[in-house]
Amino acid sequence: MGFVVDQQSFLRYCQVERRLSPHTKRSYEQTLDQYAAYCQTTHQDPYDVQSARRYLYALYEADTATTTVAQKVSCLKQFGKFVARETGGEPLFHGLTSPKRRKTLPTFAVPSEVEQLLKAAEGQDDPFLRARDVAIVEMLYGTGMRVAELCGMDVSSYDAGLAFVHVVGKGKKERYIPIGQFAIEALDRYFNVRQTCATPQETALFLSQKGNRVTTDQIRYVMKRLRKLGGLHKPLTPHSLRHSFATDMLERGADLRAVQELLGHESLSTTGRYTHVSTERLRAVYQATHPRK
Q1: 159: part of which helix (H) or strand (E)?
Q2: 16 partner at 20 to 30 Å CA-CA among 61, 102, 165, 291?
């Protein structure tokens, strides 16, 4: 019973004090539930670091992705630090180490693939879905915002006069992002049909067909459906459009720190991941400079 109480206290701490996103809080909750179930099934002490190691070994044996294991290690260590803070003891899982992550380039869409997504959205029969999905793609690609930030936007988040949107990012940090003409026109078309699903008291900008605020899972499903309609085989996600925004901005000469601010990154090194160069640009540099091209 003690572990369950500590778990609930930790999750409240994550929400209230650390102000973690609902997605991160849900991930932590799932990890701790899974770990507690493992310890109960195998009759182990959940506060023992050896139990945590055996749990992680079980994940490795099940061929769990390295990134997933690393996230679970991070959760357990954060939980251990919290319990230590509350009890005045030593951190429980201080000795756990995360697996080395293989460095991979982010998946992103080239402009022609973004056009395919938009064409697929525009080809839908339902006028509400057609206008909403075009606006979703234009906003994700045109602002680089996170999918959770898009879902959290209200109608009042959009300032048509200044052509800016107000978003609340990780840690409840707020920022303003300028939007371009394509996104503005897409929003205008969406506002014309939004009232067909919206109730008078609904404040959310993007709605489901039932009139509720869209969820991150629903936006991911929209992308999956548009990929299929557009004949795209690349595993593009809403986050891929964030990658595309950053990549295209940097390749067209945008300052790295400006892109960092637009994306809402705390660390410049995180933004630096997007400085990978397109194949076309590499080829152009090679053709222009190599003596034996």
Answers
A1: strand 158-159
A2: 165
